[in-house]
Amino acid sequence: MDTYINIYIERERDRGFGFFLTELSDYNRSGSNLKVEDNPELYFGPKIFRSSLHLIGSARVKKDQMRSFQSMLNYFPEEVLEHVFDFLTSHRDRNAVSLVCKSWYAVERFSREKVFIGNCYAISPDRLIARFPRVRSLTLKGKPHFADFNLVPHDWGGYVQPWIESMVKGGVNLEELRLKRMLVSDESLELLANSFPNFKSLVLVSCEGFTTDGLAAIASNCRFLRELDLQENEVEDRRGQWLSRFPDSCTSLVSLNFACLKGEVNLASLERLVARCCNLRSLRVNHAVPLDALQRILAQAPQLVDLGTGSFVHDPDSESYNKLETSMQKCTSITSLSGFLDVTARCLPAIYSICRHLTTLNLSYAPGIYSDELVKLICHCNKLERLLVLDTIGDKGLGVVASTCKELQELRVFPSDIYVVGNASVTEEGLVAISAGCPKLNSILYFCQQMTNAALITVAKNCPNFIRFRLCTLNPTVPDAVTMQPLDEGFGAIVKSCKGLKRLSVSGLLTDQVFLYFGRYAKQLEMLSIAFAGDSDKGMLYVLNGCKKLKKLEIRDSPFGNVALLADMGKYETMRSLWMSSCEVTLGACKTLAQKMPKLNVEIINESDQMEDSVDDKQKVEKMYLYRTLVGPRKDAPDFVWTL
Amino acid sequence: MERAAVYDSDLNLKATELRLGLPGRDESEKQSSRNNKRSSAEMENSCDKDEQESAPAPKAQVVGWPPVRSYRKNILQHQKNESDLSGIFVKVSMDGAPYLRKIDLKVYKNYQDLLKALENMFKCSIGVYSEREGYNGSEFAPTYEDKDGDWMLVGDVPWDMFITSCKRLRIMKGSEAKGLGCL
């Protein structure tokens, strides 16, 4: 029996590069080993860690081979390194690896195929391609998060065009493009479709600027298209029958999601497309696809794993409805269900047969399903891991979820009527019930009428595993509904208990105290959203000083000002971005910050008609967005954006 | 939604007072720990003790609150509009009356409004709804036929659900409706 030694490759910050040998006894490992050809006794395991010790790689070596291996250590052949790096899929791990030494940086950059850019203005496309010439998959994010809530003008920026142009020029073999909150034009889509022969996957989330003509270009020119996934985009409908532009030779589709499109599609084309794409796993149609068409589609695609229905309205006593039930029963692989954009509740029993396999259910666009029917449906869904609903489910409905869905990990409860406070039907009771019944819960987005500290404290105790905790009271400054106190203690309990919390959004009446808790306990926090909270600069300072891993901070309508902004300017270089709107920061302070920190872009969004000269440094800034960047002020900023 | 003006007290000069600020916002802003917060013109200070009532607080439209993606907001609004487009006219019959009436359910905000209107229209007394007893004790009980064709007691389901599922109304004699109240 051979004894193996585990070698941990570490990076020592101050002492440069070094290897450490550690002898460990045999241990059980799962996962495959990759045998390296030039030394058959050498195995590289797939376990690559990233931890506070900067553990980067591990290898098992036979003990009697150690001596010869030792000399090899200092000269890890590049192919070997590349093999090891292949196992690194997370961009964070790859970033860590590339910092070890020059040779590792070089190997890593040539082998990286997937690049993630969290802020498209932090780097330029040319520099990206220069560093990662073999990039095949690019993920880009554009506008700041608060753009989702109409706080950022539409033409603020985030254009994908220059990225595509650079990749064309750079001869990149692009296969996958994933964009979030970016401006995408038909021209961009046409260029994309015509320039990359191996293009396989396009995912657009919350983007705008394109029409169905752009989609037609993608459909007709991307010969090996596997994925076209449109999530919540604003797309202008040009009635050009874009779906019919998929050629008969297109059989490669695995995922097609056009739920957000407003216009009609040619149903016959859709049915034929589905019929010839036998690998289709995910299909989400829009509201223009009626229930009988859905039935015909399902008959052709019983292998579907993810289904988004369109209109689910029909006469439940009809023949086609019965056919639908039958087709549904044959779809035994469906684990994810969404849609129901129009729905007749009495048609819902057709899906009961697939409910017991469902792991994801999204009914958040279906206001036509009331609490009773929702409950009936959910009673069948005991394998659910992810549930998105409207608050029409009510606290009682959430109670049913709590007792049925024991595997639940993520819950999102959206408001059904955002214009009238007082009609929402979930309160702290529903949240407490869920926390008590669903031990695996780790992610929540909860819009509610009211909240209490007691409830939050209970939730914190029941669910210490939250990674994402986002609570939104419909009235932004409502206090504890019972004690009328601020909700400081409740949120404090959450951060204290949930040591792995990465994302937090808070609301309700909050004082500086809650931020003291955040700074003290929220050590893993990466993203924090604050609105109408706090009393003074101290609040913001607690967060900036205490939350060491903070990447994104967004604040609106809170009394934080220049003292907080300027206290630790270096901090912003460790973060992706900071947004502050309707706070107390002045133009003068922003100018100071911009001047002292050349690696930050400090942008002011000024939507009023004021001339630049007449603006006083003492004036409060309405909207400020700053972010770290390697390429200085952007050149595509519109008139109303001043980069200081 | 506006808070109901206090009709019973004096002249209610406040209601006719000309001043800047959002309707429903009281001048004598209560002392709260948020005094040094910038008072945005859009903010609604509805969290104070004095304003706590059973009626929902008036809501000012704060930009970007609640934080719901515009895409979602548009969908909800569109779905709301689709149902808002036309009035919901339903026939109303009353036991013993020679002819039926028609009313637009859209015109009423809640059950209270509707019942009051029915009482006026038919000169009857319907009384107060209770979950357990229905309208027991009243001369008349309001019922409606829902989408499924069943006759239901008015008041059981949320108002919004009611107006979309109600096909016609029938005001039954209290004696006949007794059975319903015991369910």
From TrEMBL, chain A:
Keywords linked to the UniProt accession: Auxin signaling pathway, Developmental protein, Nucleus, Ubl conjugation pathway
Organism: Fraxinus pennsylvanica
Source organism, top-level taxon: Eukaryota
Entry GO CC: nucleus; SCF ubiquitin ligase complex
MF (Gene Ontology): auxin binding
Transmembrane segments: none
Protein name: F-box domain-containing protein
UniProt keyword annotation of NAD present: no
GO biological process, one term: SCF-dependent proteasomal ubiquitin-dependent protein catabolic process
Protein location: Nucleus
Range of residues in the leader sequence: none
Pfam families: F-box_5, LRR_6, Transp_inhibit
Primary location class: nucleus
Domain spans labelled F-box: 76-117
Pathway(s) served: Protein modification; protein ubiquitination
Automatic annotation (TrEMBL), chain B:
Pfam families with a match to the protein in the record: AUX_IAA
Entry keyword annotation includes Transcription regulation: yes
Residue ranges of every copy of the AUX/IAA domain listed in the record: 16-181
Entry's Gene Ontology cellular component terms: nucleus
Superkingdom of this protein's organism: Eukaryota
Spans annotated as Disordered: 18-60
Compartments reported by the entry: Nucleus
Biological process terms in GO annotation: auxin-activated signaling pathway; regulation of DNA-templated transcription
Keywords: Auxin signaling pathway, Nucleus, Repressor, Transcription, Transcription regulation
Family classification: Belongs to the Aux/IAA family.
Subunit (UniProt): Homodimers and heterodimers.
Protein function: Aux/IAA proteins are short-lived transcriptional factors that function as repressors of early auxin response genes at low auxin concentrations.
Protein's name according to its UniProt entry: Auxin-responsive protein
